[in-house]
């Protein structure tokens, strides 16, 4: 009799142990869901950090303040356009630098334009223009009542190897126009994009 009770007790204990083991295994599997969740969190955080690095890459590709809008070369000079800003007064100011690489004095005489009125401006950016190709309009440098351009005059010329700043002011095109082409003398056309003044 005692032997039967002992066997029955052992069987019951074994069944309880197996059941407990199974319950613990199921609970362990359920905990695996948390691991999966934390794993997905890791994936999410790594994806986030990846997209953050993508954003950094995009920011590094974005133009900086030092990056010119355009750069063209001809006739022994390099012309850089650094800014083209629309101002509240109804005009656009284009500015940049010109470097003389010709090996001799450069006066900018070719940049003053062909009009008789502009001849009195000497070596200057008076002959420059902004062209709106889409609207088929050409904007000339603004002048005062005496015919003097609102632009840089290269007084005394630019020595070989020297870099000087220049600017020219134009009437502003309509608000919807932001892409223009800057032209002066025999320099190649320089596509530029307008920015809004503060």
UniProtKB/TrEMBL annotation:
<feature type="region of interest" description="Disordered">
    <location>
        <begin position="31"/>
        <end position="74"/>
    </location>
</feature>
<feature type="compositionally biased region" description="Low complexity">
    <location>
        <begin position="41"/>
        <end position="53"/>
    </location>
</feature>
<feature type="compositionally biased region" description="Basic and acidic residues">
    <location>
        <begin position="54"/>
        <end position="64"/>
    </location>
</feature>
<keyword id="KW-0732">Signal</keyword>
<protein>
    <recommendedName>
        <fullName>Lipoprotein</fullName>
    </recommendedName>
</protein>
<feature type="signal peptide">
    <location>
        <begin position="1"/>
        <end position="26"/>
    </location>
</feature>
């Amino acid at each position: 009799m005692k032997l039967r009770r002992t066997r029955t007790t052992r069987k019951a204990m074994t069944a309880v142990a197996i059941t407990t083991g199974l319950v613990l295994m199921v609970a362990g599997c359920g905990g695996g869901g948390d691991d999966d969740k934390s794993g997905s969190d890791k994936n999410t955080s790594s994806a986030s950090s990846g997209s953050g690095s993508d954003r950094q890459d995009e920011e590094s590709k974005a133009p900086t303040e030092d990056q010119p809008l355009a750069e063209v070369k001809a006739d022994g000079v390099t012309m850089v356009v650094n800014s083209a800003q629309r101002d509240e007064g109804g005009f656009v100011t284009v500015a940049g630098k010109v470097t003389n690489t010709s090996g001799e004095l450069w006066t900018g005489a070719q940049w003053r334009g062909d009009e008789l009125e502009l001849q009195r401006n000497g070596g200057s950016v008076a002959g420059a223009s902004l062209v709106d190709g889409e609207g088929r309009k050409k904007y000339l440098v603004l002048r005062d009542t005496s015919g003097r351009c609102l632009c840089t005059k290269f007084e005394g010329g630019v020595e070989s190897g020297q870099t000087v700043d220049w600017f020219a002011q134009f009437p502003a095109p309509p608000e919807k126009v932001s892409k223009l082409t800057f032209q002066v003398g025999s320099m190649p056309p320089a596509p530029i994009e307008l920015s809004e003044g503060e």
